Structure prediction request, 622 residues.
Amino acid sequence: MFKIRSDEPKYAFLSEKESKTTSCYGELIETVTLDDEKRGKSLNINGDNAVGDNPDRYKQHGFYLNADNCIGCHACEVACSEKNDNPAHIAFRSVGFVEGGTYPDYQRLNISMACNHCTDPVCLKGCPTRAYTKFAEYGAVLQDPDICFGCGYCTWVCPYNAPQLDPVKGQVSKCNMCVDRLEVGLKPACVSACLGNALDFGVVESIPENRNQAKTSIPGFPSADITHPNIRFQQTKETQRDMVRPDGMAVKYHKQSNGEFKSAVDEKTHSHNKEWGLPKLLHSHENAHAIFTLSTQAVMGAALWLILGHWFNLVPINDVLQSSAYYPMIGILLALLGYGMFKLNMHLGKPHFFYRGFYNLRHSPVSREIAGVTLFFGGLLTIPVASILGQVWLLNAAFIITVVGFVLGSYYMYKLYRIKARPFWDHWQTASAFYGSVLSLGSLLFGAVGLLFITDSGFIPVLAAVACIGVIVESVGHIVHRKDMQNTGEGQASYFEQVTTFGKTYTLRNVILVINMLALSMLVFLPSNILFVATFISMLVTSYLGRIMFYTLVIPTTMPGAFFWKNKKFSEHAVETGLSRMPQVGVEAERHHKFDVKALLNTVRHTSLKQVVVQVSSIIRG
Prediction:
């Protein structure tokens, strides 16, 4: 257990006071009933099986921030990092701020933020490896870095910047509520170190002494409706009507008539000049996701033509299937899908633990996407085997498996981007773009491969018509998305970045999209092998530009950073200029361990058959 110092100050101890029975969200503060079997269990902190005697051990705890008192000294950050032995580029707690007004009426509001140990933790549900656990003890949401394989999905869904993806180790870690200190009656290290008496901690809804507010929001704090975070605020000082972020995001917070703040686009502090922004797009960290989604959707669309051609005897399509293109077609589709899956796996922080992606099929859309795409790949791989063996039942079974894999894989590929903390993605346009690519790229891929082996262009009109429908579906989604994004601050800011920072590329993408639509319409009536292939290449360019902007443009509803710390634009500048090599800057370029054969062999060598059986049974149980 944690050792209490003999000279521990009085303010470092948790205060014992009567607590409420329910939170402001209407949820019970008592985490388990008196006769629940979870009571009395040890947290096994540092291998110690003792059980803490904290009387409030089974109540939901949370942080309290008096924003009026926070002076931005960062003592809480230092105490947290020292206790958790964090490197300079990782901080479980950080202090950001929003500012408003001009001299002499300038105002700055500091916000100290760590994990809020939410009642409805989206990180826990989203994590494919089940690295997160919501404990009955103190309501703490704890994460095991050793289980994590570094996909970073929890950093996408969390609205508060709580999970930290280490670019060196390739794994996520986060605030653990200092449960070892709570077990012996001490407040978390950050609270004990606070100089301005701004941070406090205790059973949620218990307002500390000399405080009179327990608000669930302040300027810069994302909506509490997303996860029901267990943090409360006091902020009584009058603020400016507009409070802006210093961390490079085109977002401000505008005061409403009821005194609450709503996010909005900040056009004043950002350039309106249209730029290409190609270096940012081409060197985006999410390139692997763009390649994976596009290649998978194209293969899915082409595979559906292959299956439908067999099942419904589609005459123009069967010309391809009954030619010498059949087996090369399947081989190319498998190679393209395999490449996309390989790129995505190499994007993981710890690629040799890829199999852990199946661990959370019960909750995680990422696990379900992985399972669906894997099923699709398996079905597609079985098709040529069944064809060679001449077994009709096996061929139909392979077709069914492939279709089921398509339905599951494509749906959860879309579903995993419906993230409330990322408004630019949280729109049905994501589905229209994804399924539009299935129709357009899939049809064009199928036709382009077919033209490598046969010269008859009888199938071109049908494929071009379906591809054109796919482009129309995607275009309608873009138009509606543009309108709907004006209703959300972060979504509006993403669109503002799209027409300014990436304005020229955005315009180019739209122009090519219209040209492709016209070309496909022409191919329906005037088939041309050369125009068909040229349109396919043009669609690849259009689709890639649209998809990589999809990833690069998203602005999350996360907590504001500072002028340097937790500042995305400064981090990019530090990596580009070499400042990241100075540890005191607090920025680290990505250099986690990539996949290698040695790591895989070590994993296999140290994994017994019994462990494999346990892992498989765990996956089946969900």
